[in-house]
Structures are given as structure tokens and as C-alpha cells.
Amino acid sequence: MPPEPQQFASDNYAGICPEAWAAMEAANRGSVPAYGEDPWTKRAADAFRTLFETDAAEVFFAFNGTAANALALASLCQSYHSVICSASAHVETDECGAPEFFSNGSKLLVVASPDGKLNPALIRSVATGRSDIHFPKPRVVTITQPTETGQLYSLAEIGAIAETCRELGLRLHMDGARFANACASLGCSPAEMTWKAGVDLLCFGGTKNGMAAGEAILFFEPALAEDFGYRCKQAGQLASKMRFLSAPWVGVLEGGAWLAHAAHANACARRLAAAVADVPTFTLMFPVEANAVFLRAAPEHLEALRARGWRFYTFIGGGARFMFAWDSDPARIDALADDIRALSQRAA
Ligand SMILES: *Cc1c(COP(=O)(O)O)cnc(C)c1O
């Protein structure tokens, strides 16, 4: 089949990056033990411990982010607990109830916030609003870094949230489906953005970073990981040929490709945002801090853009979402920007 022109509707439209592909190819030579008892899986877990500058982290691999988030949250909760999240959180809007399902009913406490981010005051108000037996006991806060609309929590913001969590007896989980993009953008180390700031548990996205499939779950406090392997197996997340989930991590982590790819994707988002900044009919909905650009436009303009062959989703806030990945082609981005500009001029 001939390749279709590149689209930016989602960062998981992208293919597999060369580093992940090469590692899978290498892992495909010969046979090794199954179910994660293989050298690739050990090497990938060690690569995470090196990257995160801690020998203590326990690392698990799941097929996708929904499973990683849902099982991670379930591991922190009893069924009568609750999880504080933002209204736009993927765990609330895009996981079909998986966190509630895998936790046997732990309730998500959804917080509306002006910028889609949680903060200590919001967390405190939800966590302390009720303390009676009739309300599910708050147990975890989950934040998405970067958020679903491409904003970042600064290290100071994460630290302040973690401090509030500690004070209130809550655990802090980070949905890092685009964790690499956040690291590249903030220019901080993975350790600084997680355990050094007080994050207990991280889901680190591989798929949107350039892998075929796979997310890593990192427990920074080993005791929290107790029996987590059983949870993964029961949920159908223990890959028998685990090396094909783990080897790609070796490929992207050891040589630094994870960060370079994310930096490229972020730069692509800035490129589109800059190219259309002065187009009056398409306006930026959110600050561009990672690999996402959201543009608000009249429905007829969005339709006209689609008619020119561009694909995009409008499920967040009604605007057009463009997401960039390791393979985003700057020439295609410029073509998109040109089409946006041309539509605008036609309307004028
Ligand atoms: C993509 C994404 C996930 C993972 O989604 P899956 O389709 O289950 O892999 C999780 N959280 C966020 C914020 C995402 O954007």
C-alpha cells in the first residue's frame, strides 16, 4: 500500500522509531525465556533505574496506557477509596471506566479547574470536603504531565502538590503518557520531575514516544509494588513474549532517543503555533508547552480544513487538535500552516 500523506491528528499515528525497531529486530534473534524472565526485560528495567537515578524503582511493562494507569491506581486503592483527578484527565475521559473497574469501584473525584491542572488548593478542598463514612475516602491524586491539552506542571507545582498529598495522606500518581515531552520541554531530569518531587508512581508512555506499543509503570517506593505482578497478569497485561515490549525501551532509553524524539515533537508544535500565530480566524486555545497545538476556529473553517485533506480531532473543547511525534515532517507542518492561512484569507 502506498503511504498516506502524514497527518497530525494524533501522536500515535506515527510509526515505530528506528531505535525501537532496531531493538525489536535484535530481540528477534534467537529464543529467550518467556514472561519477562529474559535479558531484555532486565536490561530495560535497569535502563529505567539508571535514567531515574535510583536503584529502588520497581519497573513493570504493560501493553498500553489505559492498563498502566488503571492498574497503577488500583494498586494504591481499596474499593472504598477515591482518586482525585482533573476533569480533562485521560483516566476520566478516555479509559472507559478502567480505573474504576480494575480497582473494584474506587471512585474518581473529578475536579474542574480553569487551566485543566490540579493545584494544592483544589486538592485540599476535595480531599477535606467530606470525612464521613458515606463518602469514598480520598486516597490518590493523579496528575497528567504534560496535560491532555499540552500544558506542563513546573517542578515547583509538582512539589507543592506532593507536599499537600503527604500532608493529607494521599499518594501521588503521574500519568506520563507523554512524559518524555515534558522532560524535553522543562529541561529537567526524570528524577527531578518524579520521585525527587514526591511522585510515588509513574506511568511512562512508550507508544507516543515512538514504540509500537508499551508503557512502563515505575514504583519509586518498592513496597507499593508488592503483588503488582499478579495484578498485571490477572488483567491480561503480562506479555508472554515480554522481550518485544521491553527491548524497545532499551533501544530508546540507552542512547537517549526518547528525549531527542520528544524534543523534535515539541519543536514541531512550536513551529505550527508560530506559523499560524498571526492568522486571525484560527486562534490558539492553550499555551504550547509540549507537542500539542489546539486551534479554535469557526465550524466552517474546520470543515474547509478537512476538505483540504487534513485530519484532526475536536473532542477537547471543540477546537482542532494537532499532535506531533518523532517522525513529524516540518514540510508537512508548513503545508498545514499554509492551508490554514489560505482559508483565513479566503474568508476575509
Ligand atoms: C494516550 C494517552 C494514554 C494512554 O492511552 P492508551 O490508548 O490506553 O495507550 C494515557 N494518558 C494520556 C494522557 C494519553 O494521552
UniProtKB/TrEMBL annotation:
User: Which CDD domains does the annotation name?
Assistant: TA_like
Q: Does the keyword Lyase apply?
A: yes
| Entries under Pfam families matching the protein | Beta_elim_lyase
Its UniProt entry gives the catalysed reaction(s) as:
L-threonine = acetaldehyde + glycine; L-allo-threonine = acetaldehyde + glycine
Q: How does it assemble?
A: Homotetramer.
Aromatic amino acid beta-eliminating lyase/threonine aldolase domain boundaries: 7-296
Query: Is Lyase among the key words of this record?
Result: yes
Briefly, what is this protein's role? Catalyzes the cleavage of L-allo-threonine and L-threonine to glycine and acetaldehyde.
**InterPro entries, per database record:** ArAA_b-elim_lyase/Thr_aldolase, Low_specificity_L-TA_bact, PyrdxlP-dep_Trfase, PyrdxlP-dep_Trfase_major, PyrdxlP-dep_Trfase_small
Q: Which GO terms describe its molecular function?
A: threonine aldolase activity
The protein here is known as L-threonine aldolase
Which keywords does this Swiss-Prot/TrEMBL entry list? Lyase, Pyridoxal phosphate
